[in-house]
Amino acid sequence: MMNNLTINFLLLAAGQGQRFGQAVNKLLYKYNGEVIFSRLWRRLTEYIDVYYRNPENFRRRLQQEAEELSYPPTKKAQLLALSAQINLKFRLIIATRKEERELFAPLCYTENPVEICFVDGSFAREATAIQALRSINLPESSVAPVTFTPAEELFFIHDAARLQVSDELLDRLLINAWLYHTAIPMLPLSDSVVYFNAGENNKPEHLDRSRLFALQTPQVFSSAALSYLLSFLPPVTAEHKSFYEHFTDDSSLYAAYGGDIRYVKGEENNFKLTSFSDLERLK
């Protein structure tokens, strides 16, 4: 019996990109003869294409990833059995500004049987993510997902300015979120960090960097986890703008309502294109 799992890639491409310093959306900027967004699109469609060309190889790759990760023995056995019989369905969801949709649409093509749809962005990152999830009719439920019960649908919520997410990281996130309903990539900070508290005359506080980590995307949640989150959230309207602007990533919003987060190792190469000089780091 095959285990069906739907994989949704929700690409957040509606940002202003003001720090990039160009007159156009940085994702639509052409670099070395190619629109920047096309790099990410090609990366994700190549990942999907591996499954459609040889699903058995894809399944073996997931099994190998499961073998290398630390799980309780009973859960590892369950995961290996599931991976051997996994049947995937993919959907690509692109959140853009309304006026830019016609510029992104020609870039979004694949020969595989993958559903592609566009949704409207909003005034802030988290507002865009939540509006997108509601626009595709994701139901709301106040019941938290049961940990260790395999998910039936996953959402990879990804900042489209992270162009170089690898197969290995995507596999790692898929495997973890499948069993634990969330998977958030993170990296330890290497620089020393100082915190300024304006309430105490802006006196700097040196923080222990060994306990500090930078979060990346894709941040992955099961549909059950997102249904739980949506049941608590206010509508995406101007009235609630300050609420959504307070959160800068999906995991902090989920954790604020008691959701359990599973963190996994991220990648240095999975950096976010922010300034124009970051183009030199692209491979």
Automatic annotation (TrEMBL):
GO molecular function, one term: nucleotidyltransferase activity
Zinc-finger is among the record's keywords: no
Gene3D superfamilies, alphabetized: Spore Coat Polysaccharide Biosynthesis Protein SpsA, Chain A (3.90.550.10)
This protein's UniProt keywords: Isoprene biosynthesis, Nucleotidyltransferase, Transferase
Cleaved signal peptide residues: none
InterPro entries: IspD/TarI, IspD/TarI_cytidylyltransf_bact, Nucleotide-diphossugar_trans
Keyword Transferase in record: yes
PANTHER family found in the cross-reference section: 2-C-METHYL-D-ERYTHRITOL 4-PHOSPHATE CYTIDYLYLTRANSFERASE, CHLOROPLASTIC
Name of the protein: 2-C-methyl-D-erythritol 4-phosphate cytidylyltransferase
Organism for this UniProt entry: Amygdalobacter indicium
